[in-house]
């Protein structure tokens, strides 16, 4: 979480902001670790009424926060590439509780599917895969 704003969770290349008034979560993805799909969708504004589940998984050095939308399957490729997820260096549990509370008070809405984007080139996938393997191997040693 941002030390000055309890409604913002900042990650290594992503952030998510909770807006109580607009009843939205806004995911912003940038930087070399974010995937092309995440960057193409950024900023991704999610109405709280479309959120079915809120997840937070604290770790030793890497922590995960993500949401699952109503009418969609959970993202199976990992939080690091989830358009509705953030990998961060702080425990996201308090932020997740704030989001759960806001979702419980939100007006229900229909989920909108994520638009399809073209797959990255083979060279791009290889380079990003190598980078992620290096980061995962470094940060996720338990």
Can you offer a commentary on this structure?
This protein has 142 residues and is of the alpha+beta class. It has helices spanning 36-41, 93-105, 122-139, and strands at 8-10, 14-19, 24-29, 44-47, 51-57, 63-69, 85-88. It is built from three helices and seven strands; from the N terminus they run E-E-E-H-E-E-E-E-H-H. It has a four-stranded antiparallel β-sheet. Strand 1 and strand 2 form a beta hairpin. The two termini are 23 Å apart. The mean pLDDT is 78.
Give a short synopsis of this structure.
By secondary structure, the protein is an alpha+beta fold. The chain has helices at residues 36-41, 93-105, 122-139; strands at 8-10, 14-19, 24-29, 44-47, 51-57, 63-69, 85-88.
